[in-house]
Amino acid sequence: MLPSYLSKADLHLLYVFTVVADARGFSAAQVDLNVSTSTISRQISDIETRLGMRLCSRGRAGFQMTEQGDLVYHAAKKLFLSLEDFEKEVTGVRENIVGHLSVGVIDNWISNGTSAMVRALSKFAKAAPDVSLELHTLAPDDLELGVLDRRISFGIGVFHSHKPGIDYEKISEEFVDLYCAAAHPLFNCRDEKRIREGIAKASLAKRSYLNESIVAPITRGMKSNAEAHQIEGIVTLILTGHHIGYLPRSFAESMVKSRRIRAISDGEFALPVAIEMINKRGHARSLLERTFVDCLTDLK
Fold it and tell me: Could you tell me which residue, 2 or 193, shows the higher pLDDT?
């Protein structure tokens, strides 16, 4: 059994076990751990001996967690999160803001040079020049999952349904318009009746991460045989001339100016969407995280 305190060696062995469990096998964990499978096997045997229980089975049937191993895995994950929180608190005591900040944003919003996020990152870089920053571009669902499992500290995006365990705070607003390309029959149409009829017959480039019928009523019931997971995919489908779809105005602006696309009915079907910051509910923010939030909310 483990003693009442954990040594550095014990923590390392537990870490090895969690990496192996996440990778679902010794071979898959080699890259992350940078050691051979024989070394990993010995380390797993060592932690099993220390704990006095079998954590996983490995053999011809492949890697499998035991019931006890599953419990130890989740306990170890909580332990490492607690150690991370401790590190953040200690960081906050220091005079200089140091550490690591992981932030996730929806695709193409960050490319808008006028967005609050761009200005906030610039301000944060000046306030905390020694902090290492990790920026992810993710779909809304992945942002929420990243926040819940603490892979990212904050997510910035559009969230049309709020999940339990997450705090949501509006930081800005963006408008999306319904667009078609120059090759589409609606591009030069100005008659409102014909536009309505054309929309009813059109094929919608669906955003796979949104429930279109809820967030954009005009598209309710429209046929769609194409969808995309990111904004680049939506605009690619629109540019074929076979589909119409919603795009953020800031993203579409340059293509509108070059007349590659246009807002159908001159923006009549535009919708406001809230850009929200999310983080895990109940999570105590470190000095580093509070500084980032201050930089972001000061620009709201």
Answer: 193
